[in-house]
């Protein structure tokens, strides 16, 4: 049965994972509640150093693939950098996502400054997920990935952001890279579900990037990631075995030929 918003709202805890293709989406579909087609795909799938060059066409292509693979999970498509800098442009691009994919919601980064945009999209029948705290699309302008909520100003700003996003009509809120005590205050100040990534233990749900948690991206491990598999090593050792079999003439064998 499809995970609708009302079903998600009733659950005690929510598990979200990213996916970028039908194969992985199909594997995750029966297990998690929500699949995020994150613009993190620009880094882990496409090999860029940040998310900023992800395009709307790219996000739509991967969201279509995920929707082909996942039939139960609630699917969220990230709006990439530069596709929602005015409310009207955001609406035009979010309509494209809704028309060309089966995504249930779009996600965009930004706090109170994005309230007008979130309201316009919500008023036009598009479900919006907010994203506050450490916002990867700001990594270039802020000169890196900075944990938020470390001082009073930052705490107050985050609380204002969360409230403004909820009041604008967002259906859910991702909180990334925020001190746990501040994230807890945010959770307690809004009634929409909160999903944390590097935001501690008090959010209703958690999200991880699949290639981080399965150990396929092994260049570095952010503190908040828990690795559930040594994916890169498992794949590399299988491919090494395949190469050995080819070079030694063991593959193909009797049972693999016509
Ligand atoms: O792009 C992404 O994968 C995200 C998550 C890190 C929340 O926005």
Word description of this protein:
- There is one protein chain.
- With 258 residues, this protein is of the alpha/beta class.
- It folds into two domains: 5-227, Phosphoenolpyruvate-binding domains (TIM Barrel); 231-258.
- The protein is 40% helix and 15% strand.
- The protein contains ten helices and eight strands.
- It has helices spanning 5-10, 22-29, 41-44, 56-69, 87-100, 115-123, 152-168, 180-189, 210-213, 231-248, and strands spanning 14-18, 34-37, 74-78, 105-109, 128-133, 172-176, 194-197, 205-208.
- An eight-stranded parallel β-barrel has the order 1-2-3-4-5-6-7-8, surrounded by five helices.
- The model has no long low-confidence stretch (mean pLDDT 97).
- 3-methyl-2-oxobutanoic acid binds at residues 18, 36, 38-40, 78, 174, 176, 197, 207, 209.
Tags for this entry?
258 residues, alpha/beta, TIM Barrel, 2 domains, 8-stranded parallel beta barrel, 8 strands, 40% helix, globular
């Amino acid at each position: 049965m499809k995970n609708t918003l009302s079903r998600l709202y009733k659950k005690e805890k929510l598990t979200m994972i990213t996916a970028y293709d039908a194969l992985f989406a199909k594997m995750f579909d029966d297990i998690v509640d929500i699949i995020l087609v994150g613009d993190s795909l620009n880094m882990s799938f496409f090999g860029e150093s940040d998310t900023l060059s992800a395009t709307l066409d790219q996000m739509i292509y991967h969201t279509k693939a995920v929707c082909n693979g996942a039939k139960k999970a609630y699917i969220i498509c990230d709006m990439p950098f530069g596709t929602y800098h005015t409310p009207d442009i955001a609406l035009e691009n979010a309509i494209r996502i809704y028309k060309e994919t089966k995504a249930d919601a779009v996600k965009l980064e930004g706090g109170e400054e994005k309230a007008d945009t979130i309201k316009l999209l919500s008023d036009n029948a598009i479900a919006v997920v907010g994203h506050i705290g450490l916002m990867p699309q700001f990594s270039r302008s802020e000169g890196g990935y900075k944990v938020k909520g470390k001082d009073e100003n930052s705490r107050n700003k985050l609380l204002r952001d969360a409230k403004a996003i909820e009041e604008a009509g967002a259906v859910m809120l991702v909180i990334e890279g925020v001190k746990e005590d501040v994230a807890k205050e945010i959770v307690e100040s809004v009634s929409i579900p909160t999903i944390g990534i590097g935001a501690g233990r008090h959010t209703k749900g958690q999200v991880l990037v699949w290639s981080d948690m399965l150990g396929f991206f092994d260049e570095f491990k952010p503190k908040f990631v828990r690795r559930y598999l040594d994916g890169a090593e498992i794949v590399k050792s299988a491919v090494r075995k395949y190469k050995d079999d080819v070079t030694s003439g063991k593959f193909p064998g009797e049972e693999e030929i016509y």
